[in-house]
């Protein structure tokens, strides 16, 4: 009796999970069908030609680049140096030292010959106190703000307060921008005459490739399978997911690793929100919300060009903390803005992307975890039909690898693809193995992340800020 | 004969410049990146160096900054910058470049500038 | 059960097919690119000589039409990127017109979207005037949407190589974004610009006027300065502001005594531009006005006033005086900032 009950309950669960996976697979396919044609159409487009004009155009708005830094003495100098080699008519670099306990500030000061200046700062938002402001003697467009520790969002807000240009780019300390990144990301804003209020581009994983001074010298796949899997994940997330959502104007994330924002819009919505983990996603949701609330025609756009490279975590421990953090960030943002969920007032955002992020991005971990249990227990203990378990296994493999191979196809249509034939084989091979090792690990960590959200560990203020946030 | 170093990572630019200047009867050496440029400048007695602002290994700016005082005093430095990078120009001049030429450039203009500097 | 297996098999087949497709097409592309690169390297020295006019000898080009078009295109694109001399440009144009014309006409008619857009860019880069009628016809085929790159580029090409037709077309349009209009006007020759000024009237869409006014300043077109000065006193605020912006770029205008009323304007933008103009033209007679606007309620006005004062001959002393003596805290702060910050703004 008992056994029978278990068995039929398990079978029902199994079918629910199978149904879920097929549904998600179909959503991905639809997104692929939306983003694919655009990528295909622009496959042979000469992108350098399309941005040439911007370099001499006086309407290419100047940009402030904000670099929040907390204990980044190792990387901050090279980050700023590579920013200085960006191709753009006019920009300023603002490093915000968020109360580092290491030599971040003093390294900046000696390397760039900085001296203290007095600034009549406008306070669009309250932040922790800004102690000192420095300007470089050598590069008059490089500034350093020294402030009391207040977290990444607080640092970015202080940067926005100080910045003097109408648009700003927020970048992570460890991301490397391509030389024409600013031009490419600003292009939609300028072409639309300001109708685009925020943009972001694809983020690619730098592991394995050689990049120096914002120029990619050699493109190659990394050796570690963990890093290769993340490359596939990024292709999937950016080329299928984000591009698809962006084309429907319901994109909810501009990567924290690199995004460009219209300052007045960000000021209007109140800046970055402190005490949240996914501050980049949260801001975008708030911008969407304000656009819809005031029935503005402005939009948020994503460009498929890879413009930003980032070092992906190559150890399991750092990967784990990254994923737990993302999951928490996503959960918090969705919770904060839960009123938008299924709210027809917010159109596609409320009716599609919020539920999409909830069901596909956030809760997939739960469904998949159940799925793995069903497969393992079903097969070993015979709770469920072996056939059902096998179908589920097959669906899982397909679900992962078919979408991945479609992503590889799209990647082949963009530029900056890996130059060797071998890389396609490697990517395909690892995409096939995903279900058996990478996905289960991710699933477990993401469920941990979910649980952590409920527990709300009290470590917001000085959270681990290593690695990239939210892709 | 006056000696000129042309440092640029793009072969087409190097070839064009060398082509133009050789016709004027200068002795020319080439470097493909900043490091090579720096080494050559410290060894050979150059009268003039044409440095690209953006080069691998060391940028034109870094080359100027790493030059020894002695070399710096005995050489004229011309920086090649992209047309619109006004900021770069100012920075290059601050750092000790004597002239700059914007890319794309006109070979006639280049020869005129070089002849004037070395006259 | 069977249909499940069947659909799984189908999915598997799709995936294998996809894999093979990617592999083969990648191989083909790689081989092709490599071949073009080799051809390019071999031909580069002789093309440099032709473009520099040190040799007239045309090198042998590959027989295959596609290779020939791609390699010549690559050579000329690279060469036009690095050379700016008139003679060089003319020779590049001639080379393009002898080898690429037929291929380009065909692409405009039958090519894919990306090919057409690329080609339109190259036509402009090489200044291929002889293709102008085909581009004019092409305009009729393109979807006229401001954000369509192909439409934008077709207009750019026409403004460059066929200004007569372009002007007639554009003046009859009623919508076009200001920034695109500027891009287009920037390409016009002197005669067409004068024509443009003459033809602007009450009916001209305001975006055109605004674009034209600002552009005159950016390009410092002196013959249009009187026009811009007239716009300073237009009844529409938008036009007045653009005219002020334009004057900032000219760094000159003839009736400086009229600046006074702008310092007292109710619109903060006018006060800001008044300060900017006083700064770029180093108008010492407005120093008292500038000290007043240094305490303006709007940050931008204060900032521009500070910058303007620091540009005056005795600006530094004046700022030091304000920083220590002025009764307004805003003014003191701004003066302090100006005294310690190096100027970074290269353009207003």
TrEMBL record, chain A:
GO function term, MF aspect, one: glycosyltransferase activity
Family that this chain belongs to: Belongs to the glycosyltransferase 2 family.
Protein name in UniProt: Glycosyl transferase
Keyword check for Transmembrane: yes
Source taxon at top rank: Bacteria
Residue spans crossing the bilayer: 12-34, 239-261, 356-381, 388-409, 421-438
Keyword list, A-Z: Glycosyltransferase, Membrane, Transferase, Transmembrane, Transmembrane helix
Pfam family, one: Glyco_tranf_2_3
Automatic annotation (TrEMBL), chain B:
BP terms from Gene Ontology: phosphorelay signal transduction system
Positions of the Response regulatory domain: 3-118
Positions of modified residues (4-aspartylphosphate): 52
Cited PROSITE patterns: RESPONSE_REGULATORY (PS50110)
Pfam family, one: Response_reg
Xref: InterPro entries: CheY-like_superfamily, Sig_transdc_resp-reg_receiver, ST_Response_Regulator
Keyword entries, A-Z: Phosphoprotein
Designated name of the protein: Response regulator
Organism: Salipaludibacillus neizhouensis
From TrEMBL, chain C:
Segments traversing the membrane: 6-24
Alphabetized Gene3D superfamilies for the sequence: Leucine-rich Repeat Variant
InterPro entries attached to this UniProt entry: ARM-like, ARM-type_fold
UniProtKB keywords: Membrane, Transmembrane, Transmembrane helix
Protein name: HEAT repeat domain-containing protein
Organism: Salipaludibacillus neizhouensis
């Amino acid at each position: 009796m008992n056994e029978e009950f278990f068995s039929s309950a398990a079978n029902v669960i199994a079918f629910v999970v199978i149904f879920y996976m097929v549904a998600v697979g179909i959503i991905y396919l639809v997104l692929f069908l939306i983003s694919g044609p655009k990528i295909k159409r622009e496959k042979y487009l000469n992108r350098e030609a399309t941005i040439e004009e911007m370099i001499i155009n006086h309407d290419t708005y100047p940009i402030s680049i904000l670099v929040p830094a907390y204990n980044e003495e190792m990387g901050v100098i090279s980050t700023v140096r590579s920013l200085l080699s960006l191709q753009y008519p006019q920009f300023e670099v603002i490093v915000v030292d968020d109360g580092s306990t290491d030599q971040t500030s003093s390294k900046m000061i000696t390397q760039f010959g900085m001296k203290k200046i007095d600034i009549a700062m406008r306070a669009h938002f309250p932040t922790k106190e800004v102690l000192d402001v420095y300007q470089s003697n050598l590069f008059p467009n490089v500034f350093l703000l020294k402030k009391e520790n207040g977290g990444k969002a607080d640092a970015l807000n202080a940067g926005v307060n100080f910045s003097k240009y109408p648009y700003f780019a927020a970048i992570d300390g460890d991301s490397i921008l391509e030389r024409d990144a600013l031009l490419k990301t600003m292009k939609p804003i300028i072409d639309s005459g300001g109708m685009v209020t925020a943009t972001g581009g694809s983020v690619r994983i730098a592991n394995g490739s050689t990049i120096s001074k914002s120029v990619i010298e050699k493109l190659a796949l990394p050796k570690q399978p963990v890093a290769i899997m993340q490359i596939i994940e990024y292709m999937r997330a950016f080329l299928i997911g984000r591009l698809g959502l962006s084309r429907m104007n319901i994109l909810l994330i501009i990567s924290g690793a690199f995004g460009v924002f219209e300052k007045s819009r960000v000021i209007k919505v109140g800046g970055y929100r402190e005490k949240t983990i996914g501050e980049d996603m949260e801001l975008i949701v708030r911008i969407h919300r304000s656009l819809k609330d005031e029935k503005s025609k402005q939009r948020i756009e994503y460009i498929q060009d890879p413009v930003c490279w980032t070092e992906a975590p190559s150890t399991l421990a750092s990967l784990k903390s990254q994923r737990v953090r993302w999951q928490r960030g996503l959960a918090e943002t969705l919770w904060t803005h839960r009123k938008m969920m299924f709210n027809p007032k917010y159109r596609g955002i409320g009716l599609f992307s919020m539920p999409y992020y909830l069901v596909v991005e956030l809760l997939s971990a739960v469904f998949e975890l159940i799925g793995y249990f069903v497969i393992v227990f079903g097969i070993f203990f015979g709770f469920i039909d072996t056939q059902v378990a096998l179908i589920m296994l097959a669906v899982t493999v397909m679900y992962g690898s078919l979408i991945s191979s479609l992503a590889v196809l799209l990647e082949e249509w963009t530029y900056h693809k890996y130059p060797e034939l071998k890389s396609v084989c490697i990517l395909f091979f690892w995409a096939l193995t995903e279900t058996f090792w990478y996905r289960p690990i991710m699933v477990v960590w993401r469920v941990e992340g979910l649980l952590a959200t409920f527990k709300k560990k009290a470590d917001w203020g000085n959270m681990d800020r290593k690695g990239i946030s939210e892709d | 004969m006056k000696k000129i170093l042309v440092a640029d990572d793009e072969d087409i630019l190097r070839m064009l410049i060398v082509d133009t200047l050789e016709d004027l009867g200068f002795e020319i050496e080439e470097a493909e990146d900043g490091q090579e440029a720096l080494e050559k400048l410290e060894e050979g007695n150059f009268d003039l160096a044409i440095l690209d602002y953006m080069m691998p290994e060391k940028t034109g700016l870094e080359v100027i900054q790493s030059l020894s005082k002695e070399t710096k005093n005995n050489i004229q430095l011309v920086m090649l910058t992209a047309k619109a990078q006004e900021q770069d120009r100012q920075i290059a001049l601050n750092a000790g470049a004597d002239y700059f030429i914007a890319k794309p450039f006109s070979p006639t203009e280049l020869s005129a500038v070089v002849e004037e500097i070395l006259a | 059960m069977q249909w499940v297996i069947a659909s799984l098999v189908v999915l598997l087949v799709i995936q294998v097919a996809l894999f093979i497709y990617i592999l083969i097409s990648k191989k083909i592309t790689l081989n092709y690119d490599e071949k073009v690169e080799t051809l390019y390297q071999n031909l580069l020295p002789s093309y440099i000589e032709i473009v520099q006019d040190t040799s007239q000898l045309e090198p042998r080009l590959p027989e295959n039409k596609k290779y020939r078009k791609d390699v010549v295109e690559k050579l000329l694109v690279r060469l036009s990127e690095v050379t700016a001399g008139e003679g060089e440009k003319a020779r590049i144009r001639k080379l393009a017109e002898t080898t690429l014309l037929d291929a380009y006409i065909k692409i405009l008619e039958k090519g894919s979207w990306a090919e057409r857009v690329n080609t339109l860019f190259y036509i402009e880069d090489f200044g291929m005037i002889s293709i102008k009628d085909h581009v004019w016809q092409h305009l009729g085929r393109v979807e006229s949407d401001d954000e369509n790159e192909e439409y934008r580029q077709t207009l750019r090409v026409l403004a460059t190589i066929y200004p007569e037709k372009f002007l007639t077309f554009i003046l009859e349009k009623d919508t076009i974004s200001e920034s695109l209009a500027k891009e287009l006007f920037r390409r016009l020759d002197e005669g067409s610009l004068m024509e443009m000024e003459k033809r602007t009237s009450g009916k001209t869409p305001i975006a055109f006027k605004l674009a034209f006014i600002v552009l005159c300043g950016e390009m410092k077109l002196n013959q249009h300065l009187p026009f811009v000065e007239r716009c300073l006193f237009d009844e529409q605020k938008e036009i007045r502001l653009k005219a002020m912006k334009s004057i900032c770029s000219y760094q000159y205008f003839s009736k400086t005594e009229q600046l006074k009323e702008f310092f007292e304007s109710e619109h903060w933008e006018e006060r800001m531009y008044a300060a900017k103009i006083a700064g770029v033209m180093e108008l010492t007679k407005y120093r008292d006005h500038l000290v007043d606007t240094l305490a303006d309620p709007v940050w931008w006005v204060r900032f521009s006033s500070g910058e303007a004062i620091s540009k005056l001959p005795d600006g530094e002393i004046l700022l030091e005086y304000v920083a220590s003596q002025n009764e307004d805290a805003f003014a003191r702060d701004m003066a302090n900032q100006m005294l310690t910050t190096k100027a970074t703004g290269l353009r207003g």
